[in-house]
Prior knowledge:
heterodimer, A: alpha+beta, MutS, DNA mismatch repair protein, domain I, globular, B: 86 residues, mainly beta, 3-stranded antiparallel sheet, 8 strands, 0% helix
Amino acid sequence: MMELRINPEPSEIMHVDLNSAFAMAEQQANPLLRGKPVGITNRNNDFAICITSSYEARKHGVGVGTRLREARLRAPGFVMVESDSAKYGYINKKMRAIFESYSPVSYMKSVDEGIIDFRGMRGLLKGRSLEDVGRELKQRVHEEVGDYMTVNVGIAQNRWLAKVAAGFLKPDGLYMIGPDNLEVVYGMMDLVELPYIKQRNKLRLNEAGIYTALDFFRASEAVLTKQVFRGVNGHHWYLKLRGYETEVEYGIRTVGRSYVLEHRTADPEELATLLYKAAVKVARRLRKNNLAARGLMLRLTYARQAGPGEEARRNRMYGQYAWGERRMYRTPVRRADQLYQRALELFWRGPRGEVVASMAMTAYAVEPARTEQLALYESEDVRQDRIEDAMNIVNDRYGELTLVPAAVMKSKNPMPDKVPFGSVRYFD
Amino acid sequence: MREQCDDPVSVLASFAPGPRNTMRVTPHLLKWQGRRYRLSTMGLYHPERRGTKRVHIFSFSCDETAFRVELDPETLEWRLKEVYYG
């Protein structure tokens, strides 16, 4: 099979990485925290766990999952700050506005990463290079978002390589990868430094005799598709490494909410009420985006450590016993009561009598909500749909959960909005 | 050390054009419990929605003390919500 050459197209995708976004936002807001090791937690108490940390804290080994006591021992002067979604949401909005001023094809990929696609937009740049645009963007972040805020900018031919480029010269760097320096870049990197190559993939690559990033780039398509990744995934890696775009266009694939319970409980009635609350919020997001979902996933993390053979949650509640279940249904739904019924079905399959510390509900396999679906419903369903629409109008005006079903009011847990990782749709 | 509070305060602020045709509000002086604090470093402005209201929140420091103050758009009252001692 003939080897595919490196993509000869110019580098026109920009990846912007907001360094340690939440921690930096807190250091921007409180000048006395600048230069100090700072951690962010969803609940600031003696047992708080970091969900992210500043560069200064990371240098001392304080990161995701580090408990407060341990962080104080590792990083002298460590300060833990409770997360503030309004603040981060505002910064996210300002970043989006900056991106959109450069190209209509731009989006925030996650809470701290954005993409600006300049393909076909050269005319808008008025003769400036993308490196000049990158420098200007960094300056605008200083002026329009905050003078302490720094971003890393990477420019390349596809989104994956642009992310690789943004990883160089941190913090506050700017780097471009193109056909001329692609192999040099791979020559400087370890396998696990490549985005989405973690330990498991590294072992699979090693088994095929691939030990370095350069080996990975030089591997044939046959090895990647038949030996390492098997199938289309291997083909995508082969293309991606050569600068061709393989990532699907941005769109909503899941809608979810996760909560840390202020009052941990094993009481099934309270947990059912919390499930309904979560369903109300997920339903609202689905309806706001005119979507319906066929799949539902429920995940509970419990207050105790996992025992032998039990599933443990690896990230912020490190080592906690966790359980999850998902199911795909034939009919897409978008109402809170429908999501709740499905969530309850999943919930009853889980362990009983365990004290729950956090819960996450995610609707997946989303698709545009079609009005003809309503025609298939009985009239009671149509009436329920209208009731929920009316409730959402009130909640849009006066705030989420202003008007709720009576069942939700019984809950002792307030379930304030806390920021989940990865999902930037949360800020919509 | 961080201290939460909810005290009425007096604030002297300027309203001036910022970058890209936006208006920028900058607190300069804060009067709290009879003492005056002059802003040394501006931190961040951000709004927060509470029901129908959009509260304006200003975070800044005066030497070794950082403040978080809120401006209620309906009552035009400034309130101090948090003090951080460096």
